Amino acid sequence: MDLSPLKAALADVVAIPVTPFAEDGSIDTAVYRALLRRLLDGGVRIVTPNGNTGEFYALTPDERRTVTELTIEEVAGRATVLVGVGHDVPTAVAAAEHARDAGAEMVMVHQPVHPYVSQDGWIDYHRAIAEAVPGLGVVPYIRNPLLTGDRLAELADHCPNVIGAKYSVPDAARFGAFARDAGLERFTWVAGLAELYAPSYFAGGATGFTSGLVNVAPGVSMAMLEALRAGDYPAAMKVWEQIRRFEELRADRQSANNVTVVKEGLASLGLCRRDVRAPSRVLPEAQRAEVAEQVAGWSI
């Protein structure tokens, strides 16, 4: 099976849609569809339902399936769908199989949340999922700084459908070494810490980056991608300077407000309620104005 089109699809702005909630706390499906259409109209060509910005860990299994199905229906071939899966192995395998049956092309495997993760066990976990869906591209989400690049290569030796990695360790030098130890040309490398890290990770070999900010301002994220693809780092850093404070607010206190700030930005534009689920929490009034001011200064 030729997976090269899927590898190429990852080399882009990998949008992580938010999951909007209605006043009663349920998923607001109409708003979700509208937000997806806005992303697609803004140039987004790959989306990850059930990512962390979509509050993956706060959704029920039924809700995660609903989000997957809504995304595939609304995208309708206009973009590649990379579904987030995770939790225990049976749950992750079932989610991957559901994504396949619903029409997704790829799955992103969330970093295992088990408190005791060995590197051999990391391979076992991802191998079980990848082998269950050999026709889908599989993208591990790597947040563990102790994992070495040769282990990703070992996983792909067993499972050739492992075609890329979302690398989210905040260390550009470590990323450069990891990618080369795994095989720089063997995988598509996605900078998993969004726009603030994208320029430094592109210098190390990444060709795509994830984004939550793209929910609020698709044009801003696409402008950074265009600059990075052209190798125009001064232009990319102008975008970086523009969105720096917004992303710093998201990263503050170990990313306590990662999703909260994105939803606040959408709320300031009248596109989505600001509601998030525990353990996240809405911003206090004092910070809402700052987010709105940031967003108002962008070319939306």
TrEMBL record:
Pfam families (UniProt xref): DHDPS
Binding site for pyruvate: T53
Molecular function as annotated in GO: 4-hydroxy-tetrahydrodipicolinate synthase activity
Catalytic machinery residues: Y141, K166
Keywords, comma-separated and alphabetical: Lyase
Family listed: Belongs to the DapA family.
Protein name (Swiss-Prot/TrEMBL): Dihydrodipicolinate synthase family protein
UniProt lineage: Bacteria, Bacillati, Actinomycetota, Actinomycetes, Kitasatosporales
